[in-house]
Amino acid sequence: MSIFRNVVYSIISIALLGWAFSTMYYAHLDFAEIVKTNQEPPWTVEINMLPTFIAIVVGIIFSAIMVPQLKKKRKSWKGAFLLPVEFEEGDEREKELTGKACRASYISMWYTFPIITALFFVYPFISDYAPYYPIILLLLYPLIQMIVYFISWKRNY
User: Fold this and answer.
1) Stated pTM of the model
2) CA-to-CA distance for 98 and 150, rounded, in angstroms?
3) N or C: which end of the chain has fewer CB within 10 A?
């Protein structure tokens, strides 16, 4: 399987997850307002389920594509579900490439984490405009690691 396709699947999944979480965050803000103001029932909280539905459908489609192929290669359901798709080494060279890419991804963590942590200090200033900003930052972390992994893997290939 192509590592590029795997990374694209992962990026799409993270983007859809962020979209779904941000719409749920708006619902939680509505619920928090109800709790703060101690409103009497009946009260309502609206949730846009379209992003969540799309994320679930796309996840099912990606799983339907990937799991049967992984099941054949890894010979177990546990290996097919729990190991990342990128760890499909066929020979020693691919194992070495994966090791180098994992190392680069791990090193990127040491630069990315402080930067993302510092970006959290901006949140009080933009919370009115983007209340879902922390969700974006938390999902940016694995996104950067996957991109670094892919770039390192391609560069060493």
Assistant:
1) 0.78
2) 10
3) C
DSSP string, 38-49: TPPSP-------
Picking from 155, 42, 140, the residue whose alpha carbon sits closest to that of residue 101 is: 155
d(CA 144, CA 108): 8
> Among positive and negative, which fits the CA dihedral 127, 133, 135, 137?
negative
* Residue type at position 134: P
Q: What Å distances lie between residue 140 and 14, 18, 20, 75, 118, CA to CA?
A: 9, 9, 15, 33, 13
pLDDT tens sequence across 77-106: 665 566 666 666 677 888 888 888 889 999
CA dist 90 and 146 (Å) reads 20
d(C-alpha 44, C-alpha 59), whole Å: 29
- C-beta neighbour count of 141 within 10 angstroms: 17
Concatenated DSSP letters of 46-94: ----HHHHHHHHHHHHHHHHHHHHHHHHHSSHHHHHHS-TT----SHHH
